[in-house]
């Protein structure tokens, strides 16, 4: 998608390094950063220079390319794979991508390892782009259906950033929106600010602006009243891990949005590529929920009048804070799952019809 009119993907390999858009600096500064070692890749995931489940997976895949480049020794590659998997616990795409890379790299002639790693990492990213495009084509049908009845601008609420910046391209939740916009359907997006890191305000609103899509940032707690007023036609969110029973783990606050949508008969859709499905864990409470540094809550970053990024403390110095990064929305509150293979019920039967 576009930034300043130029088309980008979120990650690519060029001249022996992996290039990413540093998302910790957006929306104020657009900086392309080079990752030169697997440690750089691990750090980029940990400090969220890259984030969003599919992009974390893509970065882990390219992280292993960097590991092979550094030291083509099976022990080093295995250790790097383990460290990559541990860098963020909730998004399943991370382990999925690392396992896929390691499988591909096993029993390969040493002088072929780098070529094989590069081809597989690119394949993982190309596949994600294609899957997200298909999510858009499938999700567009839902937006069209609502538009054919309403004949007016469709108001869509989204939480966090499940946009193209969270994937390789297109995004998951935003892909149907981009497809609707390209087709000429008038859409307006309610963007949840998404405290504490503000991925909605900093990333979703930013990328929608760059694509010319009408959007309004709202405080995280405003969705409820907007739904009560009839100002939300549908919700679409992403997911970091979807269980085979249709339970959905996503950015903290998603569950409360789903409850409000349920109470107000607003359709609540979750968009995901199949790489986000966890076929092993059976209960939502068994999903590892990342608890991040409380400084993300107590400090806020912004730009000052000299165009410099500054961080300030907004809490009482003596106060404690707790920062859970994800929650689980039970399948019963999910109207449907929008996947690359089609739309299905959020249930074991629904997912089985499309996959496996
Ligand atoms: O903590 P983040 O920014 O990595 O969380 C991202 C989200 O919760 C996204 O909504 C999710 O990964 C879906 S991405 C297409």
In words, what does this structure look like?
This protein has helices spanning 38-46, 53-70, 74-86, 93-105, 113-150, 174-182, 199-210, 223-228, 254-263, 295-298, 348-354, and strands at 2-3, 6-7, 11-14, 17-21, 32-35, 154-158, 187-192, 215-218, 234-237, 241-243, 248-251, 268-271, 277-278, 299-303, 309-313, 326-329, 336-339, 342-344. It is an alpha/beta fold and 356 residues long. A 7-stranded mixed beta sheet has the order 8-7-6-9-12-17-18, sandwiched between helices. The chain has a 4-stranded mixed beta sheet with strand order 13-10-11-16, with helices on one face. The protein has a 3-stranded antiparallel beta sheet with strand order 3-4-5. Strand 10 and strand 11 form a beta hairpin. Helix 1 (38-46) runs antiparallel to helix 2 (53-70), helix 2 (53-70) packs antiparallel against helix 3 and helix 2 packs parallel to helix 4 (93-105). The longest helix has 38 residues, at 113-150. The two termini are 31 Å apart. The chain binds 5-S-methyl-1-O-phosphono-5-thio-D-ribulose. 5-S-methyl-1-O-phosphono-5-thio-D-ribulose is lined by residues 51-54, 91, 160, 162, 166-167, 172, 199, 238-240, 250-251, 325. 5-S-methyl-1-O-phosphono-5-thio-D-ribulose (MRU) binds at residues 51-54, 91, 160, 162, 166-167, 172, 199, 238-240, 250-251, 325.
């Amino acid at each position: 998608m576009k930034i300043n009119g130029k088309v980008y993907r979120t990650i690519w390999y060029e001249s022996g390094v992996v290039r990413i858009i540093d998302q910790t600096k957006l929306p104020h500064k657009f900086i392309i950063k080079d990752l030169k070692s697997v440690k750089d890749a691990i750090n980029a995931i940990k400090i969220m220079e890259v984030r969003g489940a599919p992009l974390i997976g893509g970065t882990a895949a390219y992280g292993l390319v960097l590991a092979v480049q550094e030291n083509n020794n099976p022990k080093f590659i295995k250790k790097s794979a383990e460290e990559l998997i541990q860098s963020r616990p909730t998004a399943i795409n991370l382990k999925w991508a690392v396992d896929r890379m390691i499988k591909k790299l096993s029993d390969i002639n040493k002088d072929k390892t780098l070529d094989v790693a590069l081809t597989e990492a690119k394949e993982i990213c190309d596949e994600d782009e294609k899957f997200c495009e298909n999510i858009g084509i499938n999700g567009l049908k839902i937006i069209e259906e609502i538009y054919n009845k309403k004949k007016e601008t469709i108001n869509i609420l989204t939480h966090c950033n499940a946009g193209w910046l969270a994937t390789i391209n297109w995004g998951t939740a935003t892909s149907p929106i981009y497809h609707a916009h390209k087709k000429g359907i008038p859409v307006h997006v309610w963007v949840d600010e998404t405290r504490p890191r503000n991925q909605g305000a900093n990333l979703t609103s930013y990328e929608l602006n760059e694509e010319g899509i009408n959007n309004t940032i709202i405080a995280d707690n405003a969705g409820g009243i907007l739904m009560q007023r009839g100002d939300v036609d549908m919700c679409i969110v992403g997911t970091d891990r979807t269980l085979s029973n249709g339970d959905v783990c996503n950015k903290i606050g998603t569950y409360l949005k789903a409850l409000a949508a349920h109470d107000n008969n607003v359709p609540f859709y979750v968009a995901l590529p199949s790489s986000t499905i966890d076929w092993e864990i059976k209960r939502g409470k068994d999903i590892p929920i990342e608890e991040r540094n409380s400084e993300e809550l107590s400090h806020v970053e912004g730009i000052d009048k000299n165009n410099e990024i500054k961080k300030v403390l907004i809490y009482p110095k003596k106060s404690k804070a707790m920062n859970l990064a994800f929650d689980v929305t039970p399948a019963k509150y999910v109207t449907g799952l929008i996947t690359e293979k089609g739309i299905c019920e959020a249930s074991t039967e629904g997912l089985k019809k499309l996959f496996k």
